Fold:
Amino acid sequence: MTVDALTDVAGVLVGHATRDGDGWLTGTTVVLAPEGGAVAGVDVRGGGPGTKETDALDPRNLVQRVQAVVLTGGSAYGLDAASGVMAWLEERGRGVRVGPDPAHVVPVVPAACVFDLGRGGDFRARPDAATGRAAAEAAHASATTPGAGVTEGCVGAGTGAVVGTLKGGVGSASTVLDSGITVAALVVANAAGSVTDPETGVLYGELFRGGRVEYPAPDVHEAASRRLAEVAARNAPPPLNTTLAVVATDADLSKAQAQKLAGTAHDGIARAVRPVHLLSDGDTVFALATGERPLDAGQPLALNEVLAAGADVVTRAIVRAVRAAEPVEGPGGAWPSYGELYGGPHGEQRGEVYGGPSRAG
Structure:
């Protein structure tokens, strides 16, 4: 049974640690690889990234597998969360063996951060090693409830996320290809750009899903635009924002192929957020491959369907992140949710219906 989430890739676990209230609005999300690790790649396209251990994923370098990926709030300060995940993994002997004792390991834990400093009101309220450990423990504990999926919205690294003037968050999606290979994504939508078409209010990402597209009624969009203009005037400008993603598959990929998957998955961000990859963004995509299903050795282009699916699930995950987000208003600012302004995920308050994605432009 699939749940349309990153955890549909067998062995991949997700856990969140969320801090909100009393000046806090931030958190950390941990993606745990299966025992033995996963082949990984990364592609960084934002001009202001905050990352850790991404050089280890270069196909020219030694490390072949990673034990976890950390996505965190707190800007560069929040990267300290990865230390807590490393300690948790070390205690379980999971990592690259570097000595004669099986306990002599160095866990490989790439990480990336989003900017959410001060959004809860306290600039110094940000994730630390304890937050990372808590998220790792939550991911590990989730293995006891298979089929539970991934909690979406204002949780973990998406707690303080903002997309333009809207509240952002965490979203996830998956697909199973005709070959039986699973491709899935988890995103933290925290973009400087917008996820909505300014003329209609429709989510850009929904224009690429195929089938019918439901557009907000004109009066709903007009009211939403007024509300967003009001909060934009009250809030500080949204600096150094970032969309992060982890794309996972059970396909047997090399490090170079994983890196290619991470790169093409950025297309999924570009479909759902405009503009992207600016100097004020830190857009970063990680790719994980568990290697359970071989690609068709007789088809040199077999990777293409995995690449295309990676972009598609990233787009859908961004849409789900925005739709799952809840509004926030506090000392750090006010961010309405898309659902608050335009209605729920099933189209309430919506108006015109068009037959396909031809209005994507």
Observations:
- Residues 346-361 have pLDDT under 50 and may be disordered.
- The CA atoms of residues 170 and 188 lie 5 Å apart.
- The chain has six helices and 19 strands.
- The two ends are 36 Å apart (CA to CA).
